[in-house]
Write a structure and sequence with these properties.
Low-confidence stretches: none
Radius of gyration: 12 Å
Largest sheet: none
Number of helices: 4
Structural class: mainly alpha
């Protein structure tokens, strides 16, 4: 289920739907996604539009 989380995000599936589809009981998948952002950022910076989209999808808004 964790492997599809990134795929769902890239297809613009909202977090709440991903949480239900993946049977996540907590928000632990958000930690997983943030780690991926840190790892993939250097590779995505070569494509700014992809980088911006990924960050928009994976980072929670500041409250």
């Amino acid at each position: 289920r964790i492997g599809l989380t990134l795929e769902y995000l890239l297809r613009n599936v909202p977090f709440d739907i991903i949480k239900v589809k993946g049977r996540w009981v907590s928000d632990a998948f958000l930690v997983y996604l943030r780690r991926h952002v840190q790892i993939l950022t250097p590779y995505m910076q070569a494509q700014p539009s992809l980088h911006e989209s990924f960050l928009r999808l994976t980072l929670q808004p500041v409250r």
